[in-house]
Structure formats: structure tokens, C-alpha cells
Design brief:
globular, single chain, alpha/beta
Length: about 300
Amino acid sequence: MKKITIFLALTITFFSCKKEEKKVNQKLNVVTTTTMITDLVKNIGGNLITVEGLMGSGVDPHLYKASEGDVTKLVDADVIFYNGLHLEGKLVEVFEKMGTQNIKTIAVGEVLDKSILIGSDYFASNYDPHIWFNVNNWKQVTLFTIEKLKELDPKNAEAFETNGKAYLEKLNILESNIKATIETLPLDKRILVTAHDAFSYFGKEYAFNVVGLQGLSTATEAGVQDVQKLAAFIIENQVKAIFIETSVPKRTIEALQAAVKSKDHEVIIGGTLYSDALGNPGTIEGTYIGMFEYNVNTIVNALK
């Protein structure tokens, strides 16, 4: 990170001159961190802005490190949208440096009232940053992003407002659909066991008991005792299925399945969930709405 910080300081001087030459009618250049935020900003901005996401499908934001190429993109951006709440842990120093150089950075998670956030000792923010797994949270983030883009690019404010309202209606439909699907699963079967505890907001909103093998951050490793303890929990509660995550190596869940089997019990791997990143671009799961519907269908079908 020291190397990146030094590189950042050098590139700021170079790009400050370049930015002054930017034409007034040029599109707003937006850089985003996670795939969820990239998808959101594209839905609001459409073809009126340029959007470049740093993280792709299957990328773990907890462990993501900025490359020199990333820093160049960040410094050249008109604005940077990121999750905040220390989700992008290893990028925090870079964003702080940007702030001291008057480069616009916006943490979308900061719009949420602290009273609705879930506490966590794993993050410097003291809050669980996986806010997108409650659709109501994402609606608030959407409204916040609409207003920020309007402030940054007033000439396209009306279009951002129109696009944003259309996207909010889609989120309303999403919320209705997933609630209907979840209601088909009895309460006593709503136990969600995954690689790491990214689904706490989901569990709180939709009445699931969520248990993650690695805790809230993938920076922590699951030990043998963690695996054995969770295996005992699965057996005691007769959990039918456990789930892999696309952004976390599957070996931890496979070890858990083996531990359950060693005690003469069976638990299936119910599928792969999207947790810290969306699916591949161009696929249904490559959108926030498609990802959420896919996850809910996978969870409910496996646990029934």
C-alpha cells in the first residue's frame, strides 16, 4: 500500500493539469468500486455519463488492493462512488488521500441512519457494510445517488430523476417478488449457512437465522473449531443445505460438508450465492435485481 500511496501522490499532480483542460460538454466521468454500485450508477446515469467499475464479478471487496492502473482511473475521475463502512478495507487509505486533494469521493453507505445498521466489531466503522441485502436500504442509496448525480451534472438532472424513478419502481417490484417467494418457506427452515456472514441484513429483514463460517469479513480465516462447531449446529437444527459464495473460495464450505458427513449426517451444497459481487456482465445475475432474485430462489428451493 505504501507503493500505491507514493504513486497516488505523483499522479495527482499530473492529472490536476489534465482535468483543467476538460471540456464543459464532456460526459461526467464516474468511477465505482463494487459491482452493485456500478450497476446502480449505470441505471441512473444511462448513456449520459461514463461509468468505470474497479471490481468485477467474483471479486472480494474486503481484500481488494488498488493497482497502479486503478489509482490512475481514480485520480482521473470526476467523482468516485464507493460503499463505505469499511467494506473496501484496503482502499480506505487511497480514498482518504483523494479527499485531501479535493477529488470528489462519495460513500453511499453513509446515507443510511446508524439506527438501521447492524453492529460489527470486525470493521473500523463498527457496522456491517453489506447493506445491499436489504432492498429498502438500496432504495435509500438509490435516492441519495440520484441527488448526488444531479448536483454533479445539473444539465442532465431531469434525466437522472426520470431514470432513478423508473429504477425505484423496479426495486419495488423486486421487493414484492422476493417476499412472495420467501413466504413459501416455513420459518423453521429459514436457516442460512454460508461461507461468510454477508447476509445479516437479509436475515433481519426476511426472518432468516444467518450463520457465516468466516464471520463478517473474509479477511478472517475459519479454523477447525469453527468448522466443528458449525457442523454440530447443522446437525442439531437439521439444516438441509449450505451455500457457497462466488467471491469466497468454496473449500471452506466443502470442509464444513465433510465435517457433517464425518458425524454420519448429510447436508447438501444448495448452490452458489452472490454475496460481495454480482454475476458476469450481460447475464441476469450481473444486475442487482437479477442477483437478488437468483439468490432468493436458490435459497428457498434448496431449503424447502
